[in-house]
Amino acid sequence: MTIIEPAPRPLVDVVAIMQLPPPVNGLSLVNEEMGKRLADAGRLAALWDIAPPVGKSGVFGALARGWRVLVAAFRLVFRRPRGVRILYMPCDGGTGLLFNIVLALTARCLGLELWMHHHSFAYVDRRSVLFAVLMVAAPRGALHIGLCKDMISRLSVQYARQWSRAQARQHVLPNAFVFRTAKTSRQNRPAGPIQLGHMSNLTVDKGTVSFLDLVLAAHVRGLDVEGRLAGPIVDPEIETALAERAALLPGRLTWVGPVYGQAKSAFLNSLDAFVFPTRYANEAQPLVLLEALAAGAPILSIERGCIGCDHRESPGLTAPANEFQQAALDWIARNLVNRSGRAAARHMAYDRSELLSREAEASLSALLAMR
Q1: What sign for the dihedral angle of Cα 55, 259, 247, 273?
Q2: For the chain, what is the largest distance between any 2 Cα atoms, rounded to a whole number of angstroms?
Q3: Tens digits of per-residue pLDDT, 43-100?
């Protein structure tokens, strides 16, 4: 006799408490997509936004956010949706960990499981008393969702005692799942000067001056390059550096300002390589590198956060900060001086983007299937 087992019913068992757009930034975009995926999987019982109101920053922003966290904790205690057994929350990088501690204690008192999604290396690279307290406050067996294997490994070493006592579990989920619909059609660029691009909030920490110096060094070396920058200039030092390099490289440097939507896609599609020599202390897993690969641009970056772990096999290179300029110049000279080399690098970028996306989708599916 054939016995047909009924399909398991979906568990609507997760409350997500997170910061959503606006403002639009890497964290809020990932949070928004994660909320959609939890809903698509039938797991999301409720999603509560704890981002401060637009325009509120500093003390007022912190107070507004603190109030929203307390309201969320109150709702968990007194108005928890029926069947909820998991609290999902992204972790902050600084003093915002205090808000995470409040929510973790609430989950522990209610007997909920806790999924903590890590997006910052602030407490991974440097031991944080607040994060150690969060580890103690969290329910036993909390699931730590990291952006890469290096992140989880370093986190477990940095907080080895708390990690062991808490019987912490782990799961690696790269941000590449955000770009499931962001693939561009495969295309080659026309012949012409090598187009090197850089996009960010243009600051010294994000590597803008290092990018300008790379374009200048490539020109001195005799390489036919042009540099293109996108993003807001938020550091006066960048205005000075850009004016100085532009005077030395007439017609070879272009700043297009902030770009969004189709303009952003067009900018990335125009590049032969995307340069991101970030020195930002808390750099984790920059979405812009994934966007660049999806647009067919090899990446040249410094090893920070998950960048080395993610992109050692991506077309382009990752290098220590003190070796970056020479290594990048050598790579450009080897791979981008002729049209066939550029086409090969471009198609390797497309292939790498698709691989990273598939791996992230598989990891997300495994996470959403956890019971």
Answers
A1: positive
A2: 84
A3: 999 999 999 887 777 888 889 999 999 999 999 999 999 999 999 999 998 899 999 9
What crossing angle do the helices spanning 287-294 and 26-40 adopt, rounded to 10°?
70
Alpha helices in 15-57 (DSSP H): 26-40
Distance (Å, whole) CA 181 – CA 354 = 11
Domain borders along the chain are: 14-173, 194-354
Calculate the alpha carbon distances from 5 to 2, 43, 131, 314, 366 in Å.
10, 21, 44, 44, 22
Residue type, 171: H
**How many C-beta atoms surround the C-beta of residue 242 within 10 A?**
19
Fold equal for 14-173 and 194-354: yes
| Axis-axis angle for helices 97-110, 129-137 (nearest 10) | 10
DSSP characters for 238-258?
A: HHHHHHHHHHHSTTTEEE---
φ/ψ region of 231 (left if φ > 0, alpha if ψ in -120 to 50, else beta) reads left
In CATH, the architecture of 14-173 is 3-Layer(aba) Sandwich (3.40)
The number of helix segments (H) and strand segments (E) in the chain equals 14, 12
* Structure token digits, residue 338: 């002729």
pTM: 0.92
Distances (CA, A) of 202 to 181, 215, 281, 282, 288: 27, 16, 15, 16, 13
Q: CA 320 to CA 348: how far, in whole Å?
A: 23
Strand 273-276 to strand 169-172: parallel, antiparallel, or no bridges (unpaired)?
A: unpaired
Phi, psi (deg, nearest 5) at residue 341: -65, -40
Per-residue model confidence as pLDDT tens digits over 204-213: 999 999 999 9
**Burial code of 63-89, b = ≥16 C-beta within 10 A, e = fewer?**
ebbbebbeebbebbeeebeeebbbbbb
Count of alpha carbons within 13 angstroms of residue 152, beta-carbon side: 16
CATH architecture of the domain with range 194-354: 3-Layer(aba) Sandwich (3.40)
- Please list the residues that pair with 319 across neighbouring strands: 302
Strands 194-199 and 86-90: unpaired
Q: pLDDT digit string (tens) for 157-196?
A: 999 999 999 999 999 999 999 975 444 556 777 778 999 9
- Here the tokens at position 325 are 């300029």
